[in-house]
Design brief:
With about 70 residues, this protein is mainly alpha-helical. It is built from three helices and no strands.
């Protein structure tokens, strides 16, 4: 991860809120874990969870696409 721990925490917090708006529980949990590691300045641990967060974000993006396209 690039940036400082507070930036990681802030970004993950925003993603956690986004996930909550979509009721994406798994994405919310992943973002919360990254947020907690950012708060504790454990950037290596946070970076290990980013792949999970990205994967969960993709699930949300695909669900939104299907909703918009009417599939």
């Amino acid at each position: 991860l690039k940036g400082d721990a507070s930036e990681v925490e802030r970004s993950a917090h925003c993603l956690k809120g986004l996930a909550a708006n979509f009721n994406a529980v798994d994405m919310q949990a992943a973002a919360q874990a990254v947020e907690q590691h950012g708060r504790a300045a454990r950037l290596e641990a946070a970076s290990q969870l980013v792949a999970r967060l990205e994967s969960e974000l993709e699930v949300v993006v695909e669900a939104v696409k299907k909703e918009i396209m009417g599939d």
